[in-house]
Write a structure and sequence with these properties.
single chain, 235 residues, alpha+beta, Ribosomal Protein L25, Chain P, RNA Polymerase Alpha Subunit, Chain A, domain 2, 4-stranded mixed β-sheet
Length: 235
């Protein structure tokens, strides 16, 4: 697991869109913690402190210690909703974790190296899939998966099933989905179509993972590019 991230939060008693706007004007971000008991705590976190805690993180779905007025919770940061114009965070969703039970979450795929097909054959590296959904114990969670593409030749591809995640991590995303390929320049448009198809195929599994965060001790789910697209603020 990556270094432990601690986030401070305080309880938020009032609700409604007006209250959420007031909270944001004070430099706070409205937040919610879904408990293992299925209840929900309405919170707020300091925007500056939150941004500093998340600085350098490779994905927005990360395992954190959420301290709510002195009470620590092991939690998955499931989603960060952002303003469509400024990209500032406007709502944060957490899901409480049972550290002894497996969770699901989306992790980023990082391509490493320059493919042989690009260096020597004039090909173009195209990444069709940018996230996968994994299942593991919270202590084994990784923010990203590094994929070495240096030996990939022109016409070659890497599938989800080719990824090596280690014995402690199970793959949820279908193994037949393409992650990356080296294509001839003239076929880039076709590769872009394949990328859209891959996102469609992977979307259902990622959405299920995101929705299932605290259920039966399984953790959270996935979002296709979590936090990248703005959504209406929760209240």
């Amino acid at each position: 697991m990556s270094k432990q991230i601690k986030i401070q939060a305080t309880a938020r008693k009032a609700h409604g869109s007006g209250e959420a706007r007031r909270v944001r004007r004070t430099g706070q971000i409205p937040a919610a913690l879904t408990l293992l008991s299925r209840g929900t705590e309405t919170l707020q976190v300091n925007e500056h402190d939150f941004m500093m805690a998340m600085r350098g993180q490779e994905g927005e779905q990360v395992v954190v210690v959420l301290e709510v007025e002195g009470r620590p919770f092991n939690a998955l940061l499931r989603e960060v909703q952002r303003d469509v114009i400024s990209s500032r965070p406007i709502h944060v969703d957490f899901g409480e974790l049972d550290m002894t039970k497996k969770m699901r979450a989306a992790v980023r795929i990082k391509l490493v190296g320059e493919p042989e097909g690009v260096r020597t054959e004039g090909g173009v590296l195209t990444q069709m899939l940018h996230e996968i959904v994994i299942e593991c114990l919270p202590g084994d969670f990784v923010e990203s998966v590094a994929v070495d593409v240096s030996t990939l030749k022109l016409g070659g591809s890497i599938m989800v099933g080719d990824l090596r995640l280690g014995e402690a991590v199970n793959l949820v995303t279908h193994g037949g989905i393409a992650v990356a390929a080296v294509v001839a320049p003239a076929t880039e448009e076709v590769a872009a179509t394949d990328e859209a198809a891959a996102k469609t195929e992977a979307g259902a599994a990622e959405a299920d993972a995101k929705a299932g965060a605290p259920a039966a001790g399984a953790a959270a789910g996935a979002a296709a590019a979590p936090g990248a697209a703005a959504a209406p603020a929760k209240k």
